[in-house]
Design a protein that fits this description.
Blueprint lengths: L4 E8 L8 E8 L8 H11 L3 E5 L7 H11 L2 E3 L22 E3 L4 E3 L8 E6 L5 E6 L2 H5 L16 E4 L2 H14 L4 H4 L16 E9 L2
Parallel strand pairs: 1-10, 3-4
Antiparallel strand pairs: 1-2, 3-10, 5-6, 7-8, 8-9
């Protein structure tokens, strides 16, 4: 026998019709859920069964996967995403990354105090994924009265690590949507259809809305 397999089930969830399984994808149980998404969407596309929206749990909601689903297949991944874990996002008045205006064409970031970044460089993070490193001048940040809410670095100005633009934008949108009323009633969970799990977390259902065609 092989190793324990995970099963990713895509099913419709129309209010006025039966729930039909439209795709079954298997993968090693040790494989992260989000790695199944590309194969699932490719196969659904070949069948002409791509949904406009996939209701999924947090294990599928990577920023790259959200961007790929939207721009590659026109599919909206709908599920919970991780909250910003930075210390700035956890304190009252903290200046987290959402407070910066990003000009992707000019390759600059502007802070809430109107100061522009001095450094912008695409690079790879420690996981080998594309990011953009952004840095503000130390002298500018040292002179800013909002510095305690923005950076604790003694040697540099404020630093930002941005995802590529498509990923950055879909992640911001997902976090904003997550804060809206009624969001959690629609998210799959282990207690509701669309988030059914067998012991050891070996099974998860996608829910698909408004099948095209």
């Amino acid at each position: 026998m092989g190793g324990l397999q995970g099963v990713h089930l895509t099913e419709t969830c129309e209010e006025d019709g039966p729930n039909l399984i439209t795709h079954v994808e298997t993968a090693p149980s040790t494989s992260p859920d989000l790695r199944a998404l590309e194969a699932v969407d490719d196969d659904l596309s070949e069948k002409g069964l791509l949904p406009e929206r996939h209701l999924v749990d947090a294990g599928y909601m990577g920023s790259k996967e959200m961007a790929d689903a939207r721009h590659g297949h026109g599919v909206d991944l709908f599920g919970p995403v991780r909250r910003d874990g930075s210390w700035q996002a956890k304190i009252p008045g903290g200046i987290d990354s959402t407070r910066f205006e990003i000009d992707w064409e000019a390759q600059t970031a502007t802070c809430p105090e109107g100061k522009k970044s001095r450094y912008w460089k695409p690079e790879l993070n420690r996981h080998g994924r594309d990011v953009v490193a952004v840095l503000f001048a130390k002298a500018v940040c040292d002179a800013c009265e909002k510095r305690p809410l923005c950076t604790r670095s003694r040697f540099t100005g404020r630093e930002l690590t941005l995802r590529p633009r498509p990923q950055h934008e879909v992640l911001l949108e997902a976090r904003k949507r997550q804060s809206t009323e009624g969001f959690w009633e629609r998210v799959p969970s282990p207690r509701r259809r669309g988030g059914d799990r067998l012991p050891r977390g070996s099974r998860l259902r996608f829910e698909a809305l408004a099948l095209r065609g």
